[in-house]
Amino acid sequence: MYITFHGAARHVTGSKHLIHLNNDTQILLDCGMFQGMQNADDLNGHFGFVPEKVDYMVLSHAHIDHCGLIPRLVAEGFKGPIFCTPPTMHLARILLADSARIQESDAEFDNRHRHGGDETPPLYTEEDAMNALHQFKVVEYGEDFDISPDIKLRFTDAGHLLGSAAVHLSINEDGKTTNITFSGDVGRYGDMILRSPAKFEQADYILLESTYGDSLHKDLKPIENALHDVIQHTCMVRHGKVIIPAFSVGRTQELLYALNALELDGRLPDVPYYVDSPLADEATQVLKEHPEVYNNEVKKVMQTDADPFDFKGLHFIKSTQESIALNDDPRPCVIISASGMAEAGRVRHHIKNNIGQEKNTILIVGYCEPSSLGGHLLNGDKVVRIFHEEVDVKADVRSIKSMSAHGDYEDLLKFVSCQDPAKVKQLFLVHGEYPVQQHFADKLKKAGFENIEIPYQHQKIELE
Length: 464
Hints:
Radius of gyration: 22 Å
Largest sheet: 7 strands, mixed
Strand order of the largest sheet: 6-5-4-3-2-1-22
Organism: Mucilaginibacter ginkgonis
Helix content: 25-40%
Mean pLDDT: 93
Number of helices: 14
Strand content: 15-25%
Oligomer: single chain
Structural class: alpha/beta
Number of strands: 22
CATH superfamily of the largest domain: Ribonuclease Z/Hydroxyacylglutathione hydrolase-like
GO molecular function, one term: RNA endonuclease activity
Low-confidence stretches: none
CATH architecture of the largest domain: 4-Layer Sandwich
Protein name: MBL fold metallo-hydrolase
Pfam family, one: Beta-Casp
Keywords: Hydrolase
Distance between the termini: 7 Å
Shape: globular
C-alpha cells in the first residue's frame, strides 16, 4: 500500500491524496481546486493520476479547495461513488454549480480579450457539475460504513464547516488491518457557531492539515469589537465603505452572526449591510436547516433570538444589476462579497471601485494565499493588478486574523491528543505552506510524534 500526494502538498489549496492498495484499488481523499497561485491553471488542468483508474472518492467537506475539481474528475472518467456527510452534499451542490458558472464566465472573459490563438475552454461546465452530483453518496457522522468488504469508512466531526469531517479508513489487506485518518480541515475548539472537533480512534497513519501550524489565534470574543471599530471609523467617521472579501460558505455566516451579536448588544453602526453573493444567501439557508451542528452558545442565543444570522439593515443582493448599483451609491455601507481571497466573483469589482479612495477600508477576515489579490493587499502592496489593470491602493487595508475556521497549532495539537504517538507509524503534514509545516513538525515532535513527513507535490510514500 502507498499514498501519492497530488495537492495541498507544501501548499494550502488543491487537496488531493490518493491511496493505492496492493490489489490496485485506488481511494482518492478530496479532489480540490488550487486557488490563488500563479500556476493554478496549470495545476488544475493536470491531476497527476488517471481519474478512470480511481475506484472510490471520500470528500472531507465542501470548500472548493477540497471539492472544486470533482466535476473535472468525473468528466475525465471517474465513475465511482463519492462519499460525504449529508450537509456536505447539500453544500457541494450549490458550491460546484457556482464554481462552474465562474469557470465558464472567466473563460468567456479571457477569450473575449484574447489576441489570437486558440480559445481556452472552462475547467468544467455547469452540466459537468450536475453530472458529478449523481455520484455522491451520504454517510452519517459516526456510522461504520462498508465501502467494500475490505474497506470501512467513518466520519467524525471536524468542526471546520457545516458538514466537515475527519475521514477514518480501516483497510484490511493481506490479513492485516491498517487504520488511516485524514483530518480534512480542523476547526477551532470554541468556534463561534459549530461544535468542536470530535475525538477519534487510534490511527496507524495520519494526514494532518497544518494551515496555521505556526500561529495562535486571538480569543474569539474581540471579533465583534474589531468589526465594530472598523465599521464605526470607516462608515460613521470617514463616511466611506467597508469591503469585506469573505467565502460564501462559513466565513460569511460567521460575520452575520457577529454583526447580529452587535445588534443584540446595541452597538451595531446604523448603516446598510449588503451580502453580495447569491451563493452566500443559499449557504446561509442551508446552515439554518442544520441546527444540530450549532454549539451550545448559539443554541442559548436562539432562546431569545430565533434567527442569529439576521439583523436590522441586512440586505442580500440577488442580481448583477443590484450589485453594480452598489458602486454608484455614495452612501457609507458594508459590503460582504466572495471570494475570501478576492480571486474571483463580485468582490473584485467592489475592490476595484473602492480601493482608490482613502475613506474606504478593505477588511480581510481569513487566510489568503500570498500570491492572491487578498495576499498582495495583506502584504501592503501599494499597487495591485485587478482585471488586467494596475490599480493604486489608497484605501485602508485591515485584517481580523482571529477570524479563521482553521484551528491554530494549539487546536491541531489538541485534535491529535486523543492518539498514542507511539502507535502512529507516520504522520503526514498536508495543507500548509512549507515553512509553516516545518515549524509545526517541531511542535508535534515535542508532543511525542516521531515519524513526521512533509510530502511534496506528486510524492509517493510506501506504507508498512
